[in-house]
Amino acid sequence: MQEMPEGLKKQMQKQGYHFVGKHSAVKTCEYTKKGIRGETLCYKNEFYGIRSWQCLQATPAIGCDLACRFCWRLIPDEEGYKWNELNAVDEWDNPAEIVEGMIEEQRKLVSGFKAIADNELRRKRFEEANMPRHATLSLTGEPLFYPYMSELLEEFHKRHFSTFLVHNGTLPEAIKKLRVLPTQFYISLQAPDKETYEKVTRPKIPNAWDRLLESLRLMHDMKTRTVLRLTLVKGLNMLNPEGYAQLIKIAMPNYVEVKGFSFVGGAREETRGLHYEDMPMHSEIREFAQKLADLTGYMVTDEHEESRVVLLCRDEQSKAQRIIDFDKL
What we know:
- This protein is α/β, with parallel strands linked by helices.
- Helices cover 35% and strands 16% of the residues.
- A ten-stranded mixed beta sheet has the order 1-2-3-4-5-6-7-8-10-9.
- A hairpin with a 4-residue loop joins strand 9 and strand 10.
């Protein structure tokens, strides 16, 4: 693997990334911190019962083959680094060692919260945060670069974790190789048509749109819980609900998360051309989600106003059916 430039690595460390081995990383989510403090929990807690304070936000492969304008992450090219994070790795790290390293770094990241464990709830949450039970695999864009994803998921499941694998749909060949599936399988759906897609994602690889379409077709038959996540930006990709509806019908996921873009992190870079005013209000997200529901036959079943996200479900079901039972993992 081409060595990551030291300046880039230091910049990411300042942003809270902890590196694991040669090509993996962990970064504590703001809702994990809020969960330990006993404050507002994230929408994944509301929708699926994820314990935010026990959530490990990580990736086994640092890098992405897209450069989405709305992404909160640091994009190396924008920082003046010509580092090719897509280079092949000569020898990939062992899945079990990656998982243990991620848990160890997560404990380091939450260790400072011991100082505020000053009541029963915070003490309990702090102790539980040191024993994560959920892994969201995304963080820097495309975790499926890691060729041993099945083995990695298996290692997490051995430790009674639930797993959310979140990726951008550009590696259908990697999806086909999965023999172990995550608890929940996500594809980020960034645009309703090819022209908008290329404007939004600024792909680094050829045929990215066609690859996405193939991945959506593969999602249709997956034997696990499946989700399409839309991150909507006013004036950029919050348009053409008919186009999104056609793509949703190709994949037929269990859930569709319709979420508003947040003007934070890398999304504030001048090169992205975005502004605070481009963030849709929750009422606008709700309205767009209802249009998608009307076009697809999906049902609006839940929402999280702080995160500006609305959940669509393919089938009518109670909230209890969506909640992950950690006692059975």
